[in-house]
Write a structure and sequence with these properties.
The complex is a heterodimer.
Chain A (H helix, E strand, L loop, with lengths): L1 H14 L1 H12 L5 H5 L3 H27 L3 H22 L14 H10 L2 H14 L1 H20 L1 H8 L1 H28 L2
Helix pairs in contact in A: 1-7, 1-8, 2-6, 2-8, 2-10, 4-6, 4-7, 4-8, 5-7, 5-10, 7-8, 9-10
Chain B lengths: L3 H21 L10 H17 L10 E3 L11 H18 L2 H16 L1 E4 L2 E4 L10 H18 L5 H14 L10 E2 L4 E2 L8 H15 L5 H14 L1 H4 L10 H10 L6 H26 L3 H5 L5 H20 L7 H18 L3 H4 L17 E3 H18 L13
Antiparallel strand pairs in B: 1-6, 2-3, 4-5
Helix pairs in contact in B: 2-3, 2-4, 2-14, 2-16, 3-4, 3-5, 3-16, 5-6, 5-7, 6-7, 7-8, 7-10, 10-13, 11-13, 11-14, 13-14, 13-16, 14-16
The chains are: A mainly alpha, B mainly alpha.
């Protein structure tokens, strides 16, 4: 259980929901996405799509590492590097997606689900945790992290009204710091593991 | 039309992924997979050590294959180490030639003993006034390995006598002085050694296994406490723990006595260090750029010690549930490092291209040089790696040689 929670925290950090709140609110604005937005389907569609993508990543982690001829322990260091751009973006701007980036025909898919939730950082984290703790634990961790991130995004409008845009930006930047911590922990664990 | 920003972002990702692939996670390769071929490599290494003994009981110490020369140099610590490996070959492989060769080498050690104040120490020629702790420790280990391989007790007295040199040099903190200065009848309190404490630790543990109830175990426990808590600080090890296979041998010997949580943590960290070294070596093997970003190959004497260390820690993990979670990974790394070693060894066909094929076949070369402990550590590492892969938890042979 501890391992599942540890992995869930790591994956949740790379989903960086605080950094996605402004983009989700922008995409869900009435009229932005036609029927989907009016029906409140943007969030569930994005979350379910991301969940499917990340679970597929869990299932493919082992053959993927085999294809690359890379051990799970060495991949952890690689995953840490892959997380760096998202961490820097969050630390710099507090957002993992710019508001202009959601101006697509189906923003729930591109960019909110991919790469907003299921992006390089979260995919790398999922593969790394799958190699470290096994598929079952990683899949459970993905489910927990996605549900937690979805709940936070669902409450995004309320949080933004209650805390203000500035506080959401600060929380986004803190998400970046958390990703740095997770990346360092992954890399160090990879180096120290057999 | 794709936006310029999207193209730029895509391009940066390609650069990042390429960087990660080349620098951080280059592909890994573990050389030869067949355990049968890996076992042949061990036998071939033992044959090199057996074949290249001099008439006086010493071994060929160094050989340069390009110039076909054998420089004049020797080291008694490594002499004892090679002898230890040959006794292991006698025990594990039933190799009678190895036993005979090792007995000749043991006779050379007996001829080069210094006796003083109730103890004996290995100290050839110019070192007679300052016998190195490591040489005597490995001499004890050699005799203990001989005892395990043959059940012959004729060297028991000598084991105790040399063992007393180790306890004479042991300090209150469990560490050791590196030598006794016979001229001034006092220990060398200035010099230190990274590996002598681990060698002495293992020797003391084997002395207790051979002669229980004589008090060797308390010396071994003190030595283990020093090695696992103070040694890396004393020796200014930059990235602890020091990759010390001797300490791992000692831990494996003492796991049945019961290890503390702190010693188990040390064993876990040590296994991680050896694992990292093996993974890095496998990255060097996996691609042309692997060797560029991971530096040049380590010599076989180094790679062999990683296998020895991991195999010993596998035994710790097999006996102690607190390390059960690293057992499978340790087996993976052992298979990998043994495969890498087997792949790098010079075979008979390659040896035929050199001036003295008998000095090349079964050996490992680094920049055209092989040293006897290349074969020693590679042999022991491969042998115990195969033991672990066969789930053979006891280091002792199942049958003894007569």
């Amino acid at each position: 259980m501890t391992e599942i929670l540890r992995a869930a925290v790591g994956i949740f950090a790379t989903l960086a929901p605080f950094g996605l709140i402004p983009a989700f609110l922008e995409a869900s604005r009435d009229g932005r996405e036609g029927d989907d937005a009016r029906a409140g389907r943007t969030l569930p569609l994005a979350v379910i799509t991301a969940l499917i993508v990340l679970l597929v990543a869990v299932l493919l982690a082992d053959p993927f590492l085999g294809f690359l001829d890379v051990s799970a322990e060495n991949f952890q260091a690689g995953a840490a590097v892959i997380m760096a751009p998202l961490a820097f973006r969050l630390l710099w701007s507090g957002r993992s997606l710019g508001l202009s980036e959601v101006a697509t025909s189906r923003p729930w898919l591109l960019p909110l689900a991919i790469p907003g939730l299921a992006g390089p950082a979260s995919l790398a984290a999922v593969v790394a945790f799958s190699g470290r703790y096994g598929e079952a634990d990683a899949a459970a961790a993905v489910a927990i992290a996605i549900v937690a991130a979805g709940a936070l995004l669902y409450a995004g409008g309320f949080l933004q009204r209650a805390l203000g845009e500035l506080a959401i930006g600060v929380l986004g930047r803190l998400s970046g710091a958390l990703i740095v911590a997770i990346a360092v922990e992954l890399a160090v664990d990879g180096i120290r593991s057999v | 039309m794709i936006a310029r920003g999207t193209l730029l972002s895509f391009g940066l990702w390609i650069v990042l992924v390429a960087f990660v692939r080349v620098v951080v996670v280059p592909p890994e390769s573990c050389g030869i997979e067949s355990e049968e071929r890996i076992a042949e490599a061990a036998a071939s290494a033992a044959a090199w050590m057996t074949r290249n003994q001099n008439p006086d009981g010493t071994y060929v110490y160094l050989y340069y294959n390009e110039s076909d020369t054998v420089p004049i140099a020797y080291n008694e610590v490594r002499h004892a180490g090679v002898t230890m490996s040959l006794y292991q070959a006698a025990g594990r492989l039933g190799d009678r030639e190895a036993l005979a060769t090792a007995d000749n080498a043991l006779a050379w050690m007996e001829e080069n003993l210094v006796r003083h104040d109730g103890w004996a120490a290995l100290a050839p020629g110019g070192r007679a006034d300052r016998p190195a702790l490591g040489a005597s420790a490995l001499m004890v280990v050699s005799m203990a390995e001989r005892r395990l391989a043959t059940a012959d007790t004729q060297y028991d007295g000598l084991m105790r006598e040399v063992g007393r040199y180790l306890t004479t040099l042991q300090r209150d903190d469990g560490g050791f002085h590196v030598a006794w200065q016979i001229g001034v009848d006092a220990p060398d309190t200035v010099g230190t050694s990274r590996f002598y404490p681990g060698e002495a630790l293992w020797a003391l543990a084997l002395l207790h296994e051979a002669f229980p109830g004589e008090g060797w175990d308390s010396h071994a426990r003190d030595a283990l406490q020093f090695v696992t808590t103070l040694r890396d600080d004393v020796e200014d090890v930059d990235f602890p723990p020091l990759a010390d296979q001797w300490a791992a041998y000692g831990l494996a010997e003492m796991v049945e006595w019961g290890l503390t949580d702190q010693q188990i943590d040390y064993a876990r960290d040590l296994a991680g260090r050896f694992g990292l070294l093996v993974r890095t070596a496998s990255q060097r093997e996996g691609s042309w750029y692997g060797s560029l970003v991971r530096g040049e190959d380590s010599r076989a004497s180094g790679v062999g010690t990683w296998a020895e260390g991991l195999a010993s820690l596998w035994r710790v993990a097999a006996h102690d549930d607190r390390l059960a979670d690293i057992k499978n990974k340790t087996e993976e790394r052992l298979h990998c490092v043994a495969g890498i070693l087997a792949d790098r060894q010079f075979d008979a066909e390659e040896a035929a291209d050199y001036g003295t094929p008998g000095l090349v076949e079964g050996a490992w070369f680094h920049d055209g040089e092989t040293r006897m402990d290349d074969q020693q550590h590679a042999f022991s590492g491969i042998t115990y790696a195969l033991d672990a892969l066969a789930e053979h938890k006891m280091r002792e042979p199942e049958e003894t040689l007569e």
